[in-house]
Amino acid sequence: MDSFVWYGGERRHSAYQPIGSEGDKFRAHGLYLRPGQNAVHTLYVVHHGSRESIEVFELDARPRAPTLTWIGCAVAPDPIGLNSVVGLSDGGFVTTNFLPRDADAAARERMMAGEINGEVWEWHPGTGWNKVPGSEAAGPNGLEISRDGKWLYIGGWGSQSFIRLSRGQTPVKRDSVPVGFRLDNLRWAPDGTLLAAGQGGTAPSQTSNVAKVDPTTLKVQELIRQPNIDGFGVSTVAIQVANELWLGSVRGDRIAIFPLVQSPPSRP
Fold it and tell me: What CA–CA distance (Å, rounded) separates 68 from 189?
């Protein structure tokens, strides 16, 4: 019997089964939670495994133990290699193509040297996948979106830069500022700035770096530059919790917590 995926109000023929059918092959990467009404939210998950996809779940936070229900997926065209995702109001999303899946070691080295190799994509019910104009970059990694949906903020991992890109405007407006480290992920801070986290230096003396970026002025403030420590290194993300910064890592078995101290003067 044919199976169908329901997603974004669209019924489409599909051979894809709910993500739970993968078992141990399930590999989650970027996450984005779009708040909904009555404590029922939409969770977008970048997934690598038997398919390269954005998996979409309904997160019901009303029960004492929240429930997660798979509601559909959008499978990326070859050879896109997904990394980060943000959800949109119509059920669609925006996502980054960090490193194409057919890339070899030499291609990764060229990306790290600043060669453009990826871009940003949008997916919408009914229209599917489309490349975002002007989004080409060297290793586009982390991603955030303005409240009004008119601006995208992109972590240029290969170029060690923060990129601000207009969305839905003609002509496209794009600005970029260096941050001095490989910018991995972006998260909103309570004061309306963006927390940019990533990796500085080169192995074996890499550092975990966090900077604050003003999305309007593009001023950058360094907050953390921490050498690797036992159990934690190569930071990938930072969020503010009260008066602390909580850092995640691609290596290690724990999070790192730093006090949010007065940052040094900003630089253009």
Answer: 26
